[in-house]
Structures are given as C-alpha cells and as structure tokens.
Amino acid sequence: xxxxxxxxxxxxxxxxxxxxxxxxxxxxxxxxxxxxxxxxxxxxxxxxxxxxxxxxxxxxxxxxxxxxxxxxxxxxxxxxxxxxxxxxxxxxxxxxxxxxxxxxxxxxxxxxxxxxxxxxxxxxxxxxxxxxxxxxxxxxxxxxxxxxxxxxxxxxxxxxxxxxxxxxxxxxxxxxxxxxxxxxxxxxxxxxxxxxxxxxxxxxxxxxxxxxxxxxxxxxxxxxxxxxxxxxxxxxxxxxxxxxxxxxxxxxxxxxx
Amino acid sequence: xxxxxxxxxxxxxxxxxxxxxxxxxxxxxxxxxxxxxxxxxxxxxxxxxxxxxxxxxxxxxxxxxxxxxxxxxxxxxxxxxxxxxxxxxxxxxxxxxxxxxxxxxxxxxxxxxxxxxxxxxxxxxxxxxxxxxxxxxxxxxxxxxxxxxxxxxxxxxxxxxxxxxxxxxxxxxxxxxxxxxxxxxxxxxxxxxxxxxxxxxxxxxxxxxxxxxxxxxxxxxxxxxxxxxxxxxxxxxxxxxxxxxxxxxxxxxxxxxxxxxxxxxxxxxxxxxxxxxxxxxxxxxxxxxxxxxxxxxxxxxxxxxxx
Lengths: 257, 307
Prior knowledge:
Order of helices and strands of chain A: HHHHHHHHHH
Strand content of chain A: under 5%
Radius of gyration of chain A: 19 Å
Largest sheet of chain A: none
Number of domains of chain B: 2
Number of strands of chain A: 0
CATH superfamily of the largest domain in chain B: P-loop containing nucleotide triphosphate hydrolases
Number of strands of chain B: 14
Largest sheet of chain B: 6 strands, mixed
Structural class of chain B: alpha/beta
Shape of chain B: globular
Number of helices of chain B: 11
CATH architecture of the largest domain in chain B: 3-Layer(aba) Sandwich
Number of domains of chain A: 1
Shape of chain A: globular
CATH class of the largest domain in chain B: Alpha Beta
Oligomer: heterodimer
Strand order of the largest sheet of chain B: 6-7-8-3-9-10
Structural class of chain A: mainly alpha
Radius of gyration of chain B: 22 Å
Largest interface: A-B, 22 and 30 residues
Number of helices of chain A: 10
C-alpha cells in the first residue's frame, strides 16, 4: 500500500515540476491550449454553422461543441507528451536527472501524462464555459465532459508518450500529427456525423480512439445516456491502459540501459 | 572492526548489446572515504557508477549499495544517494533556487526543510546572488556548483560524481575541489570518476585505475606512484640531434626509460639519483619533477590515443 502511495506521490511531484515551469509562461502556453480551439469553435460553429442544417435535432454549433472538446483534449495532450516530453527527455535531460532521485521511470511518465491531461481539461473547460451561457448544453450531465476530457487527455498523452519513446528526432512527429492525430481530428465525427456514410467508413472510424470519445462527449452534452455507450467507454479504458503500459515500457527501454 | 562498506561489487559485468564494457570488477566503497575511478575514455567508469545509481541495469555479478542488492531496491538506494552527472542536466525551465526546491521535492522532503537546506547550499557553493537567475545565464562553473548543491539537497550518505571538473577553467576547478574536500572532511563518502590525475591526487584517499572494463591497479595515490614509478622523473626533449649523448646519459642512469615522440622520460626510484644527474644535463631542454599519478596512469594504460 505504501508502495502505491509512493508511486502516486512520485507522479504528482513530476506533475508539480511541470506546473512550476509552466506558470511563468502560462500566457503564451494558453494561446495554444485555449485560444486555438476557441477560434475553431467560432469559425466552424458560428461561421460555417450558418449554412448547415440542424444535425441530430440540434444546431450545428451545439453538435460541434462536445466533439471539439474531445478534439481539443486530444491535441493538447498529444502536443505536450510529444514536443514537450521529447524536449525534457533528450535536449534538457530532465528525465535523466529525475530518475537519479527516488522517482521511477513509470512515475516520470505518469507525471508527464497527467500534466498533459491537465492541459486537456483546461482546454475543454474553456469551450464548455462558452457553450453553457449560450444554452448549448442540454443537461447537467454535461459537467461530466470535464472528467472525460481529462481521461481523453490521459489516453492521447499516453499515445504521444509511446511515440516519443521511439522518435529519433522532432521531424518524426510530423508523421504522428498528420497521419494519426490529423486523421482523427477530421474523421472521428467531430465536424460531421459518421451515420449515413458507406459502412466501411464507420468500421474504420470505430478503430480511431477519438470516435468513441466524441460519441461519449455528445451523449453527456445532451444527457442521453444509455447502455449502448458502455462499449465505447470500455474501448477507451482498454486503449488507455494499453497505451500507458506501452509508453512506460518504451520510455524505460530508451532511458535505462 | 571494519565498518560495512557502502558499495560492494563482485564480478560486476555489463555489456551493451553484446559489447562488453565492464568485464568483471570487484571493489568496495568504504564509509567516509573518497574513492576515485581513473581511466581513459571508454574504460567503463561511467557505466560502473551508473549501475550504482540504478540508471544502468547490472549485467552480471553482484552489486550491493548500502548493503542491499540494487535490483529491486532502487527507490530505497536512490533516497540515500547524491549524483552529480557528467553533463549538465539542471532544469532549464526553473530558476536556480527552484532547481534545488523541485529536486528536493523528488526526495519527498518537506518544504520548510528544502527551503532551509537550499539557502545553506547556495551559500556553500557561492551562488546566493544567483538565487533567482535562470540556468542559461550561469557560467559553466556556476552550473557545476549548482549541480553539486542539487545533489546535496537530500543530505546524501554517498555522493557520486562523474568527472566533476571536466570542462571547467582552472579557477572554477579549484573552487569545486575545495568544496569537495570540505564535504569529505565533513564525513560525506564520495565516489568520483576522473581522467584528471591531479584531481584524483588532490581529492582521493584511494584510486582504482580502470582500463577496457577491468581494474588494473588500486591503492593510495602515493602508494601507486611509489609502486609503479618511484620518486622522480626527468623529461628530456630530444628535439635536436645534439641531444643524442644526453639521451644515453639518461638511459644509463634511470631505473626505467620511456620514449614518446620527441620526449624521453627517465624514471628514478631514488630522488637523489635523479638530482645527481642534473649537472650533466644542464645544457639540455629538460624538466625535472616528482613522479605523479599521471605517470602511473600512462605506464599502466599506455600512451596511444583513446577515442
């Protein structure tokens, strides 16, 4: 038991290290985490939205919002555990310095992923804070979007971390952001519903973790929760655990010889 | 009765993807001493200390730190270690003071204690004025001193230093040495690697000379010099053909002679025999000096370049 507590404390100390280095540059960082999704929300939701019919019985901006929270959570976390973590691991050698203390590799990885998820939570909260007064949330269950954004952040933080562990250089992240994150951003049902498209599109989208996150986010925003959502939740939990396990293994292999 | 050693290695081995770098070494670090690992680049020094720090996995043999095998006890061992690594890995995102405070938190030290200890250490390494500075504004010597302070934040029982003065100018190096001597006098056990012989002679109670993954000699700096070299050395620069006879004089009188490029080294077990030779060599370009650890090192590891 003390072992588990020590691990949690270790991960939290790494989280605090990130927080302390972030707070001095918080404004610059917030532009990426918060301003970018808001711009998207304004341009697509209110700009493009004027020319789009109601989707699933709601105005386009209400359809878009929850999906954009999921996408924002994904982007914020994936960015943090790739460019951010890669810099700390390689150039700055921060990981090396930390694992010389009682903190373990798994705790460093967990601390960085939790930090990434915190940024996801922040980005998601801002979008939610805009949607609420506009009456775009139809249920108090929409508050559940916040913990879900954190969870989505853990998932993509872990995925980014696993990729970071095998990336030889920064240029390598282009593949990840174009072929993995970019594809999910566009084809996971954030901007348009996947229903009614050819069946294979649906199957392909089912393989993308963001698809399941978007479905759950929308259900929370409308309050339409039912048992059909459980497989999506299970999908996310299993994928998150697998990605975390893999990221710890790969980072340890890269760091400890 | 001999106190329990802080580190004990027996038949310690490490290979990186099949390439052996540490080939079965035995050594102990005794409480209170300063032990130096000397060796050319690639001798296996850093790998050995990284195994003690639980940063490199033990490849074979046994390694106990604080009486516990390193496998499975990393957290407990690292709690009692202070590490000054070879490359700067200070946290560039944090100020000088925060580097110490955040590092202390990794050890779970309460904030009050970290703050008090950080202030003491900044004074010890003469960085009080740099308290709120960012790392990139510090000189190399300041960074090394801060790295030393950081390693001391948890009041470690064993301080491990990988080439503590490499890359520093002479002034900065001497400051680092003063600090390390003060720590050792205060009872901190130290294990350091170096390829500066002067550093080993200045700081270490005992040295182990490593080459190609093996320990090839061990003893006190003085003892090693006496055993392998003797007392004094005459270096003759034979850059001119007229030195021919001088080389002969040196070769006949010295106990051992080595040639390297245009240099001839004559080694003398008794200093008075070297001094007796000086009038005969007075016309020549010579240096007469005491034997040093560097002579031992070069005798044992050879003079060819290691890259």
